[in-house]
Amino acid sequence: MTPTLPVNSTPTRWRWLRIALLALVPPLALAGWQALREPDRMAPPSSKFYLPSLLYDEFDYSAMALRGLNAELGRNAGWPTLPRGTSYEAFSASIEHPRPVKERYFLEYPHTALLLFRAGYWVQPGWRDLAMPPGLPDCGYHNLAGHSPETDGQFAFWRVFVVATSFYACIMFAAWIALILVLEWGYGAESNLQGGTLLLLLPGALFFALNRFDVLPALATALAFAALGRRRVALAAVCLGAATLLKVYPVLFAPIIVRYLWPRPKEAIRFLAVYVAMGLFALHPLLLGEDFTGIVAPYKFQLTRPPEIGLTIYGCLLPADLADGPLGSSFRLASLAAMMAWMLATPVADLAGVLRRSAMILMVFVGLAVFYSPQWIVWFIPLLGPLIRRHRWLGCWHGLLDAVNYITFPMWFFVLPELAVAWVGESSAGPFMMTLGNVLRYVRFGVCGLVLVHLAESEFSAGKRLVRSLARRWPQWPVRATG
Questions:
Q1: What is the pTM of this model?
Q2: What is the spatial distance between Cα 343 and Cα 340, in angstroms, rounded to a whole number?
Q3: What's the pLDDT at 9?
Q4: What DSSP designation does 310 have?
C-alpha cells in the first residue's frame, strides 16, 4: 500500500484567516469610530491619556465640514491665511458676536474634494432653517473641533456637523472596502500584480482611511493601474485624472505611464489626451459661481506653506535653510526634476516597473516636503501592495514604516505627551518627547531610504535581466555596424 502523505493545511488556514481579517477589521473599526462620537459635538468623550485619538480624529473632519459649509453658503474661496483660533473659553462668545463674514473663506483642499464636503449638507437639507452663529463661517477649525456647545443654536448646528462628518466617514469606509476589492482583483491576470490588502489593516493605514479623504485618490489610483493592466488606456486616464483632481500627487505617475506606453504611440497619445481633458474638470467651480482666484487658492496655499522643521527632513538629514525661500523651492524642484528624468531615461519594461518608478518619485516628493502629512502612508499602498508577491521584503519595510508613522501620529502628538508626564515626570517630559520625536524621524527617513534603494535596485536590475533574456531569445537579430 502506498503511504498517504499528510496534507499541509497551513496555506488554507492562512487564507481563511486573511479573509476573516479583511471582512471583520474594517466594519469593527468603523463601529469603534462611531462609538467614540458624541451626538452634538465633534470632540470624543474626555480621556486621561486622549486614548480615543488612537482611532478617531475630530480635527480634519471639522476642517472638511467647515469648508463644505462655506461653499454651501455660496461664498468664494481665496482667503490667503488659515483663520486664527481663539481660546476655547472665549470661542462661544466670539462666534455669537454679530459681524459680517469676510470677503472670502480659506480653502486648502482641491475643489473636487469640496464636492464631497458639500454633500454632507445635501443629505440634511433642513440645516438652512437653523440660526447659524454669525462668526461660525470664519472660525478656526481647531476651535470647532474642541468646542462644547453652550446655546440651543450651537447644539443644533453642531449636530449638523456631526451628521455631515458621519456621511464623510461612510464615503471613506466605502472607498476603503473598494480599495481592498480592487487590490484583490489585481492589475491584470498577466501582470501578477495582486494583493497587498493586509497593508490596509495596519494601524496607520486604518487610522487614515477612516479619518482622511486620502483613501479616495488612493482608490482612483488603484483603479487606474487596474485598467492600465487590462489595456483600458482611456479608462486608466480617467481614473488617474480623478485621483489628481482629489490630490495633486498622482500627477507624478502620468509621465511614467506615458513612458511605459510609448512603444505603442497611439495608446500613449490617447492616455495623455484623456488625462489632460480630465484636468479641465478642475475648472468646474466656475459653473458654480467661483472665480479663478478661488480655484487656484488651494494650490497656492499648498505650494507656499511655511516649513515645519520639527518632523521633516530639514534640520535632520538636510540643512534647515533648504526648507524655505527661493533656495528651498529651487532645491525641491531640481531634485524632483532630476528624479523624474532618471525614471524616464530608460524604457519601462512592464506594469511592475511603472509601480516601482512611481513609488520612487513619490518617495522623493514626500521626503522633501516642508510639512509633515502623515496620511501619505495610504498613498503608497496602490503602488507597493501589489508588488509584495514579487518583493517580499516590501511587506516588512512597509509594515515598519506604517508603525513608525502611527506612533508619530496620532500617538506622539496626542497620547504619548500625557504618558510621558506619568513616566518621567513633568520636568523631563518635554526633553523626552523631543528625543523620541527625533528618533522616530530618523527611523522614518531611514526606512524610506532603504525602500527607495531596494526599489531602484529591483527596477533597474530587472531591466538588465529583461534585455539579456531578449538577447538570448532572439539571437538572430541583426547587429548594425557603426563607425
A1: 0.92
A2: 5
A3: 56
A4: T
